[in-house]
Design brief:
The chain is mainly α. It has 4 helices and no strands. The longest helix has 19 residues.
């Protein structure tokens, strides 16, 4: 019986990871933020609703933001926004 072709690893590397979106989540993580950070998050959520007719909850907004930052980090490594911001501290 001939061997099955191996999956193309480069296709997996090129496909962007997507956040989980609106599904039941089995894992939980608590993150503490300042009042100002929470207000900024809420302001962004309300702007998405007002300007783009997108009703998203804070959890989904945070998951999208995390996915974007991690994708940038995977693509750009030391040149990513995450590394730059963390080294500014």
């Amino acid at each position: 019986m001939p061997d099955a072709p191996e999956p193309d690893a480069s296709a997996d590397e090129q496909a962007p990871k997507r956040p989980s979106g609106r599904v039941r989540h089995d894992e939980k993580m608590t993150v503490y933020v300042t009042s100002a950070e929470l207000l900024d998050l809420e302001h962004a959520r309300l702007m998405l609703r007002r300007d783009h007719a997108m009703a998203v909850d804070r959890g989904r907004l945070v998951r999208e933001a995390v996915a974007m930052v991690l994708a940038d980090f995977e693509r750009n490594g030391g040149e990513s926004a995450l590394v730059r911001r963390l080294t500014e501290e």
